[in-house]
Design brief:
By secondary structure, the chain is an alpha/beta fold. Helix content is 31%, strand content 23%. A 6-stranded mixed β-sheet has the order 3-2-1-11-12-9, covered by helices on one side. Helix 6 links the parallel strand 5 and strand 6. Helix 7 runs antiparallel to helix 8. The longest helix has 11 residues. The chain is globular and about 55 Å long.
Length: 241
């Protein structure tokens, strides 16, 4: 089974379109959360995830959108989520509300943040990664949230070591039997590792391949201007930060 692994689309439909045009053939879709937030087309993203029957887990932006009635809507992030919620159908909201915080697929754990805190923790350093490995017995865990394409690797044994390997420009990760991994495919909709473009991964057995694909950023800029979104959202895409 070959899985297309996506995370942090954040309503960026042109970026998702570019991924689907560039991706090799795949059998199923694994989505690691944050379909909404930042960019205007959360409804189109949810339509596609429903259409393909994606295996999804909840991201923090998804959870915030569902909880807006209980949150003070202040600041650009929550204001954008409120704008998006007003444009989602009851079917969209029911679909989003059905996503668990974590799930397993073929023995691999899917979370947005980390195995220790599936919703909010950032796996962005070696110490949180060591703790994350201790929080799960899964050999493989896929996560998002940091918007950084890469993998924390742990060699099993009496004194396991942990190291990090970035895949900012794409690349291939082979997983020997004694190696555990926390794998982030990077962000489709808003990379933060200094490389513009949409990031995604393919997982098949002991192999994960990382990709970065360019797309017409002017399409996103036009949508942002059309809907009156803050201009810094486009600037982040331009520099990949």
């Amino acid at each position: 089974m070959r899985y297309l692994v996506l995370s942090d689309i954040h309503g960026n439909w042109p970026a998702l379109e570019a991924v689907l045009q560039a991706a090799p053939p795949f059998d199923r879709v694994l989505f690691l959360g944050d379909a909404v937030g930042y960019y205007p087309d959360g409804d189109r993203v949810l339509d596609w995830l429903m259409e393909v029957g994606a295996e999804c887990v909840l991201g923090n932006h998804d959870a915030w959108l569902l909880a807006l009635d209980r949150l003070p809507v202040e600041g650009a992030v929550l204001e954008i989520l409120a704008w998006q919620r007003d444009r989602l159908s009851p079917e969209h909201l029911a679909f989003l509300g059905s996503w668990p915080w974590q799930k397993e697929v073929e023995g691999a754990l899917l979370v947005h943040g980390s195995p220790c805190d599936p919703l909010l923790e950032y796996l962005d350093d070696l110490e949180p990664a060591r703790q994350a490995f201790a929080c799960t017995e899964a050999r493989l865990a896929f996560h998002g949230h940091t918007h950084l394409a890469g993998a924390f690797l742990q060699l099993s044994g009496p004194r396991p070591w942990v190291r990090y390997q970035a895949f900012r420009q794409g690349g291939e990760l082979l997983l020997p039997p004694k190696v555990r991994a926390l794998i982030n495919p990077g962000s489709v909709g808003q990379p933060r590792d200094g490389v513009p473009g949409a990031a995604f991964a393919l997982w098949e057995g002991e192999r994960v391949e990382f990709f970065r694909v360019a797309y017409p950023l002017e399409k996103v800029e036009a949508r942002l201007r059309e809907e009156g979104f803050p201009p810094w959202l486009w600037e982040r895409l331009r520099v990949g930060e």
